[in-house]
Amino acid sequence: MTADKPDLGTLEERAGVEIAAAGDLHELTAVRARYLGKKGSVAALLRSIGELEPSERGRVGQEANAAKQRIEAAAAARKGDLERAGREQVLASQRLDVSLRGTATRTGHLHPITHVTRDMVQFFTSLGFSIEEGPEIETEYNNFEALNIPADHPARDEQDTFYLDDGRLLRTHTSNVQIRVMAGRKPPFRFIAPGRVYRHDLSPRHSPMFHQIEGFLVDERVTFGDLKGVLYGFGRHLMGRDIELRFRSNHFPFTEPSAEMDYACVLCDKQGCAACSQHGWMEWGGCGMIHPKVLERCEIDPDRYQGFAFGMGIDRTAMLRYGIPQLRHLFEGDVRVLEQI
Ligand code: DAH
Questions:
Q1: Contact 285, 261 (CB under 8 A)
Q2: Residue with CA at minimum distance from ligand 1 atom 4
Q3: Is the domain of 19 the same as that of 143?
Q4: Are residues 154 and 19 in the same domain?
Q5: Is 218 in the pocket of ligand 1 (CB under 6 A)?
Q6: How far does residue 310's CA lie from ligand 1's centre (Å)?
Q7: Mean pLDDT across the chain, nearest whole number?
Q8: How many domains does the chain have?
Q9: Residues 51 and 147 placed together within one structural domain of the fold
């Protein structure tokens, strides 16, 4: 062994110290390269064996190889230790305290109007009615004229209707959908149209925006009896039991004959209570047989086809069902109120 090269024992000892001192895998790799790599100290030592006396070479070679294996083993053991320590550190830093109280997530729910509307839709789809929608911004023609509502009708007044600058208006009822559905199509028709409507109205019982549902059926040989049958079925579906209806003669320009309908108060059974303002009856909506003029405007022959239509508010039903005392509670969007429903 020449003086400038450390002997095997020293080399192995140094390697052992450095391996033990390697603080992470990166450092360990560097130590390995220094001792065990192609250009490392052990390789250099093995190369220098050729300079020894031939009689010495075998023994020194064996010793050197044995030392190399021990260094390898020490490095592998250190690697295992470092990896284990690393895993433990990660686990410790990500420890979950499963006993900690969680934060409850708030779940939302459908708006009462949406609930009631879906319930209404479900009844009519079961009867084979389709669901139609019309725009909330509508022409005077579709909202009034085509429905036979004369120019001097009070509903057309600016006191009642929101007009836009371009002459269009916010629809005052869902009856506009009748005209849109019939335009360019041929009977039979059977649909409902739920949606928002707008009127110049603000009081505890009225809101400038509210919801209506329109029902409409045109076919051959349709009678007022068919209309009553559908309405009784609808009422039973909504209230969950048989209801009593009352039809009061009325006038709507787009139906003839026309009737206003009430149902016997489901809270007091006609005894009179706060909900029905002591009347025993609750207003439900309007209905009638479609006026021949409306059919003619849509190029449908009134001698061959007849139909019925009805329209009623949705909001009142939601108030009744969920015990909501004020209409405005439905539209103010106050989550504290809606959460209670
Ligand atoms: N459009 C009427 C209103 O808003 C309600 C109505 C009455 C609709 C009679 C109809 C009907 O379809 O036949 O007051």
A1: yes
A2: 173
A3: no
A4: no
A5: no
A6: 6
A7: 92
A8: 2
A9: no
Q: Do 129 and 82 share a domain, yes or no?
A: no
For ligand 1, pick from 153, 172, 254, 258 the residue to mutate: most ligand atoms within 8 Å of CB: 254
223-267 pLDDT per residue, tens = 999 999 999 999 999 999 999 999 999 999 999 999 999 999 988
Query: Do residues 49 and 64 make contact, with C-beta atoms less than 8 angstroms apart?
Result: yes
pTM comes to: 0.71
Give, for ligand 1, the residue of 287, 290, 295 to mutate: max count of ligand atoms closer than 8 Å to Cβ.
Answer: 287
Please give the residue range of the domain that contains residue 194.
112-338
Ligand 1: centre distance to CA 287 (Å): 6
Distance of CA 161 to the CA centre of its chain: 33
Distance, in Å, from the CA atom of 211 to the CA atom of 312, rounded to the nearest integer, reads 8
Instruction: Give 264's strand partners.
Output: 281
Q: Which residue of 173, 231, 289 sits with most ligand 1 atoms within 8 Å of its CB, as the best mutation to test the pocket?
A: 173
Q: Is 12 in the pocket of ligand 1 (CB under 6 A)?
A: no
Helix (H, G, I), strand (E, B) or coil at 243: coil
> Is residue 49 one of the residues assigned to a domain?
yes
Closest C-alpha among 308, 258, 304, 265 to residue 284: 265
